[in-house]
């Protein structure tokens, strides 16, 4: 493996890295920003994640929600989670002002729900079975798990806003296997019988 080039502010183009298999890739920090962002997103897609739907109530009491994969645990004591939302999301204001929201961890058979909440369709809850949780926030039926949270804080994070939630209640569903997202596609867990 060769030594990395100096990627100081005087030489921003020289960020070469040796990759397995002898491939070398040059990241040009100031050139073709869209390509770099796309490549960065593709590289992040190599990390498999669960799929969640965040739900809350708008100020008019109407349920709203969206699909995210940026959910993560932060602390066990106190129980804290985080997730992020793009600053240009039309639902940002509602979540920013919400006192409560729920993280619905989708089960392997809920791909259609993920697609519905990832769309721009306004009638996402019309054909959906859900029950009201804390503060009336919708809990989607059939999920692998639910985390009902109160809003703890939010922080700027580049082109996203990072939300920190305090878990008030949680439950596991009967659906054991979660829906997985990896490399731009939905995936499912499978057991290896040779273990």
UniProtKB/TrEMBL annotation:
Designated name of the protein: Flavin reductase family protein
Region annotation (Disordered) ranges: 1-30
InterPro entries hit by this protein: Flavin_Rdtase-like_dom (IPR002563), NADH-dep_flavin_reductase (IPR050268), Split_barrel_FMN-bd (IPR012349)
Keyword Oxidoreductase on entry: yes
EC number(s) recorded for this UniProt protein: 1.5.1.36
Annotated keywords: Oxidoreductase
SMART domains in the record: Flavin_Reduct
Family: Belongs to the non-flavoprotein flavin reductase family.
SUPFAM superfamilies reported for this sequence: FMN-binding split barrel
């Amino acid at each position: 493996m060769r030594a990395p080039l100096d990627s100081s502010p005087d030489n921003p183009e020289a960020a070469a890295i040796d990759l397995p298999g002898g491939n070398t890739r040059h990241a040009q920090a100031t050139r073709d920003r869209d390509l770099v962002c796309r490549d960065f997103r593709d590289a992040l897609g190599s990390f498999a994640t669960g799929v969640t739907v965040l739900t809350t109530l708008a100020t008019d009491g109407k349920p709203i929600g969206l699909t995210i994969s940026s959910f993560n645990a932060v602390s066990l004591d106190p129980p804290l989670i985080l997730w992020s939302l793009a600053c240009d999301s039309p639902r940002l204001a509602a979540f920013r002002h919400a006192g409560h929201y729920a993280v619905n961890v989708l089960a392997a058979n809920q791909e259609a729900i993920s697609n519905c909440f990832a769309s721009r369709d306004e009638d996402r809850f019309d054909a959906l079975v859900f029950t009201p949780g804390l503060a009336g926030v919708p809990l989607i039926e059939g999920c692998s798990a639910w985390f009902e949270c109160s809003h703890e804080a939010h922080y700027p994070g580049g082109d996203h806003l990072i939300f920190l939630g305090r878990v008030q209640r949680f439950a596991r569903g009967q659906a054991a296997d979660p829906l997985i997202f990896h490399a731009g596609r939905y995936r499912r867990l499978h057991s290896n019988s040779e273990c």
